[in-house]
Amino acid sequence: MNPPVQLAALRRSLPEALLSALQSLFGERLSTAQAMREHHGRDESSYDPMPPDAVIFAHSTDEVATAVKLCGSHGVPIIAYGAGTSLEGHVLALQGGITIDLSQMNQVVAVHAEDLTATVQAGVTRKQLNQEIRDTGLFFPIDPGADASLGGMAATRASGTNAVRYGTMRENTLALTVVTADGRIIRTGTRAKKSSAGYDLTRVFVGSEGTLGIITEVTVKLYPQPEAISAAVCSFHTAADAVNAVIRTIQMGVPIARVEFLDENGVKAINAHDKLSLPEKPLLLFEFHGSENGVKEQAELVQDIAAEHNAIGFEWATRPEDRSRLWAARHNAYFALLQMRPGSRAISTDCCVPISRLAECILETKADCEKNGIIYSIIGHIGDGNFHVQMLVDPHDAADIARAEGINERMVGRALAMDGTCTGEHGVGLHKMDFLVQEHGEGAIDTMRAIKHALDPGNIMNPGKIIRW
Amino acid sequence: MNPPVQLAALRRSLPEALLSALQSLFGERLSTAQAMREHHGRDESSYDPMPPDAVIFAHSTDEVATAVKLCGSHGVPIIAYGAGTSLEGHVLALQGGITIDLSQMNQVVAVHAEDLTATVQAGVTRKQLNQEIRDTGLFFPIDPGADASLGGMAATRASGTNAVRYGTMRENTLALTVVTADGRIIRTGTRAKKSSAGYDLTRVFVGSEGTLGIITEVTVKLYPQPEAISAAVCSFHTAADAVNAVIRTIQMGVPIARVEFLDENGVKAINAHDKLSLPEKPLLLFEFHGSENGVKEQAELVQDIAAEHNAIGFEWATRPEDRSRLWAARHNAYFALLQMRPGSRAISTDCCVPISRLAECILETKADCEKNGIIYSIIGHIGDGNFHVQMLVDPHDAADIARAEGINERMVGRALAMDGTCTGEHGVGLHKMDFLVQEHGEGAIDTMRAIKHALDPGNIMNPGKIIRW
């Protein structure tokens, strides 16, 4: 599936002087090899690659700053790349230019266990961070599924399964080190838990998808590992019952740590992929964090709510290995579905609505998928009102793609009509730019554009994403 | 105490044409009376009033938009005014102009109990909102002490006693309606709990103190009233013991709802003002929210921690009237201290540091106050690492003021050296502009300035606050 054809016309030329300046700086850490460029010109979206002209691997904030200055002086785009796990075409080099890969900036800079904070270089992944802090008794909760880099997670305002309890990157990022478009290095905050000191630069850059600056370090909140964790799975006869049980749980204020929904298609896919034997019906996967008593109390309450919504069984997974197996299966759901149609690509989209509208939004979207005869699953972090639709398409079949895009468009329209958002956690990238306008209206988009123009007057930072210049 | 003298030179003239245009629009809701202008030219800071040229009372977002357009076309400043409870000179009309009072925009626009959200006009106060939603079983937790307006609370990124559990206006504002400097009306978000849809305009305006736009409506999160609430007070021999008990509580992850510190001076003042008989020693005031069992468990844990830090007693206040009395006394602390020195004014400042440094920061600041022989108290939302120093000065005694400002400056220096912030919740206003530069550095300040220039190119929105033009 190609990005719109006219984009090729925007490709800027790469001046020889810039290439040699970067070469002398980065040496073997600069590559113009076709495979390397293609690898960096794609993400997990269904777009065909749009490779940059060259890829450089940065080792320090200073190197990023130098590279940005060089690109700026030549008017050449620069695109930050972390783990490449974004879903809406975020890292495609639409106008060519330099991709700066931050994955080798993978040092945990400081862990302040006594303050419940850690500062990491942008390339540190969430699993790596949790591995490195394991002995402190703390953990970093945000879990978007993929083992994404913290820099990328901040840049896309990522969240995932634990957000219902712990919040998203918006709430959990205390400060960033950012290289701005003019190549300056700024720090956007401190390690204080709260602050009223001026404009909220941290949240200006969180979610800006590399279009305002390049995040090179991230300071995040950590949390004490809960005294007790338990998990449970529970099937339902209908998706409506499952979703309504969650709505009730949230409305009652149960401080649930995770609650994931998988429709029957999602369950079928992970049964096949992970050799499980879950009933092939809509499923909820719960996790509870707290004291021994607190976890018990929450779980009993949720079990009662589930029973009121005609739940089929409520199975406990108290052993860590059982929990891990279930969560691994959940995280494999994306790849599991892909295997249901060999040769296909997935169009994966998400939206988020006020919780009371969630059942309606999911059911109408499900009906739309059924009506269009597409292979799909709906999976969601539904405690937040956030769900995903994953649709399998033949990348060479325009009608197939159009069918999926139609479902996507109607889902977004539905979410917006419910005062929801066109993306709860995937971000805008290239794919949702029109939806963004639909959601915010021209006045708000102009305000965003004014910020973009002010912070990146040369339009070199990941150009062509989020908003039109 | 006057603002710097040279500011008077910045005062812009008020064109007759603007005044008559506003008069024909606002009629009796426009006032140029001296008393009205003076009332709107001051807040709770120690500055002498800097009155605007006129005050208008808006009744709708459209009226605000029209007023902003008119002011913009004449290059005249416009300053939003809510309850006038800010503390750093936020509403002083440094360059003259029009103050737009939003207190009559006091309608609760919508309560979506089933989604745990409410949308209110900017002039609705936090107490009014809680009164109006009482029957829904929900509450709005943010409590800065004063009965501030929600618009003002969003504009200053307010927080207060409950923030340790529920977060600040940063975390609890879902969307804003804002009149931008060009008089357009935008909405910055939706009612979805999370979103990755473009730049985070909500948080661009939260904390911008009226310098980027005027907030006319606020959509906030609500929470189920906890099943059980209990409160306790506990005295300590030393401030160090009290603060260290809180540090330990936070590090253990106890989900405490409120934990307030009052030093012995603060306790003395509220004893006198509220006719209480608390031991005149450093005090902690706790509140626990949760299930019956959860509250009991939290409280027992905290009681044990307090005992390990040599607490003197641990008294329960389970009856709502006892709790209310204690919290009322806490909220009166500011006025209570003022009465310790008749004719004085208070310089009230705050900072916020990483939790492990809190005892050190408070003790050094306390020692500095003692050394300088000033009448003061230190009070804090210390679960967040946030505390206040309130110092009484003779407004006619330059040496007295200089002494207090010296203490303030050293406190901020101390907080910044600990990777904290120059203000946890009061905001920058006029008083902390230099500290803001010290905290963020020139690069970050230039980034803020670029945003200000982009969103308010005519510098009409509350000019002279937060950052220098």
Mean pLDDT of chain A, as a whole number? 95
Q: Can you tell me the number of structural domains of chain A?
A: 3
Strand order of the largest sheet of chain A: 15-12-14-13-17-18-16
Q: Please give the number of β-strands of chain A.
A: 18
Q: With helices defined by DSSP (H or I, 4 residues minimum), what is the helix count of chain A? A: 16
Given helix and strand content, the structural type of chain A is alpha+beta
Largest inter-chain interface? A-B, 94 and 94 residues
| Helical percentage of chain A | 25-40%
- What fraction of the residues of chain A are assigned to beta strands by DSSP? 15-25%
Oligomer: homodimer
Poorly predicted regions of chain A = none
Q: Can you identify the CATH superfamily of the largest domain in chain A?
A: FAD-linked oxidases, C-terminal domain
Q: How much is the radius of gyration of chain A in Å?
A: 22 Å
Write a concise synopsis of the structure shown.
Chain A has 16 helices and 18 strands. With 469 residues, chain A is of the alpha+beta class.
Structural features, described:
- Two copies of one chain form a homodimer.
- Chain A has 469 residues and is of the alpha+beta class.
- Chain A folds into three domains: 5-103, Uridine Diphospho-n-acetylenolpyruvylglucosamine Reductase, domain 2 (2-Layer Sandwich), CATH 3.30.43; 108-224, Uridine Diphospho-n-acetylenolpyruvylglucosamine Reductase, domain 3; 228-417, Vanillyl-alcohol Oxidase, Chain A, domain 3, CATH 3.40.462.
- Chain A has 16 helices and 18 strands.
- Chain A has helices spanning 16-26, 34-40, 61-74, 126-132, 150-156, 163-166, 169-172, 201-205, 239-251, 264-274, 292-308, 320-331, 333-338, 358-371, 398-417, 433-455, and strands at 30-31, 54-57, 78-81, 98-101, 108-112, 117-121, 138-139, 173-180, 185-187, 213-221, 223-224, 228-236, 258-262, 283-290, 311-317, 345-352, 375-381, 386-393.
- In chain A, the strands form four sheets. The first copy, chain A, has a seven-stranded antiparallel β-sheet, sandwiched between helices. A five-stranded antiparallel β-sheet of chain A has the order 5-6-10-8-9, sandwiched between helices. Chain A has a four-stranded mixed β-sheet with strand order 1-2-4-3, sandwiched between helices.
- In chain A, strand 5 (108-112) and strand 6 form a beta hairpin.
- In chain A, helix 1 (16-26) runs antiparallel to helix 3 (61-74) and helix 9 runs antiparallel to helix 14 (358-371).
- The two termini of chain A are 24 Å apart.
- At the A-B interface, strand 9, helix 8, strand 11, helix 9 and helix 11 of A face strand 9, helix 8, strand 11, helix 9 and helix 11 of B.
